[in-house]
Amino acid sequence: MVRCNRCGNENPPEPFVCAFCGAKLKIEKIERIKFFERPEKKWKRPQRVLTRYVQVFIKPSELFWDLRYDEKRRGAIYILLMNGALVGLIGMVLLGRVNFPHDTLADSMIYLSTFLSFFLFGLLYHLLLFGVLSYLYKIVGSRQGGRRSRHSFIAMLYAFFPSVVGNAINILVLLIALPTASFSGFNVYGDLARLFQDPQAQLAWQITGIISFIIYGGWIPLLAGLCVRSLHDSSTFRSIVWSYIVGIIMGILVFLTSGIFIESAVP
C-alpha cells in the first residue's frame, strides 16, 4: 500500500493519484513537462462548455481532469452535431460547384435536401468512428491497469474535438481547390459524382486526406492519451504511446478513404 502525503490515506500501489484527495502518488519523467503535468487542484464545480472547448487547445490536461469528476460532461454531444453540420456544409460546397440553371425555389430545396442528407450521413459516420476509437482507447486504458469502469464515451468526445477543426479546414480547401462541373440537365447528384473523378478534384481530396491524417494520427491521439490517463488513472507515457499506435493506424485508414465516404453520401 502507498500512503498519501497529503491526506494520509492508504492507496493500492498501482494508482498515480490518491483516490481520496486527488494528490499525486507518483510522478513520471514526462510529467515534468508542464503540458503533461497532472492537475492536483481540488475539484469544486464543472467548467463552462466554452471554457472546455478552449482548453482543448491550451490546457487539455485540466480539461480531462475536470471531466473525470463531472458526471454529466456537458457540451460533448455538440461535437458530434458540429461535425455533422460541417459535413452538411461540405455537401453544399459540392453542390455549389455544379453549374446549373438557377431557380430560387428549386435552388433552396436542393441545397436544403443536400445539407440534410450530408448532415445525417456525417452524424452517423462520426458516431461510428468515434465509437470505435473510444472502444479502442478503452482497451488502451485497461491495458495499462487502469480503472475500466471510469471510461466514458461522452468524455472521450472532447478528445475528438480536433475533428471539428479538421472538417472546417477541409471545407476551405474544397472551396479553393475543387473545380466546377457542368450541369447535364438530368441528374444533379450524378453531376456531383464528377467532382471526385477530375484530376484537380482528386488533388483536393488528397489534401483533405493529409489534413485528416494529421488530425486523427497526430492531434487526437495526444488528447486521447491524456483523457485515458485521467479517466483510468494510468501511466501518462504509456497511455500516450498506445493512443498514438491506435491513432496512426486510424489516421492511415481515414487518409485512404478521404473523399470516399463523402462520395458515398451522394444518392
Number of domains: 2
Low-confidence residue ranges: none
Q: Which of globular, elongated, flat, extended, rod-shaped describes the shape?
A: elongated
> How many individual helices?
10
SS content category: mainly alpha
Strand order of the largest sheet: 1-2
The N- to C-terminal Cα distance equals 61 Å
Q: Give the rounded overall mean pLDDT.
A: 84
Q: How much of the residues is beta strand, in percent?
A: under 5%
Strand elements, count: 4
What is the string of helix and strand elements?
EEHHHEHHHEHHHH
Protein traits:
single chain, 62% helix, mainly alpha, 10 helices, elongated, 267 residues
Describe what this molecule looks like in 3D:
With 267 residues, the chain is mainly alpha-helical. It has two domains: 1-32, no CATH class; 45-264, no CATH class. It is 62% helix and 3% strand. The protein has helices spanning 49-58, 60-69, 77-96, 104-143, 153-156, 162-177, 188-193, 199-232, 236-256, 260-264, and strands at residues 2-3, 10-11, 98-99, 181-182. α4 (104-143) runs antiparallel to α9 (236-256). The mean pLDDT is 84.
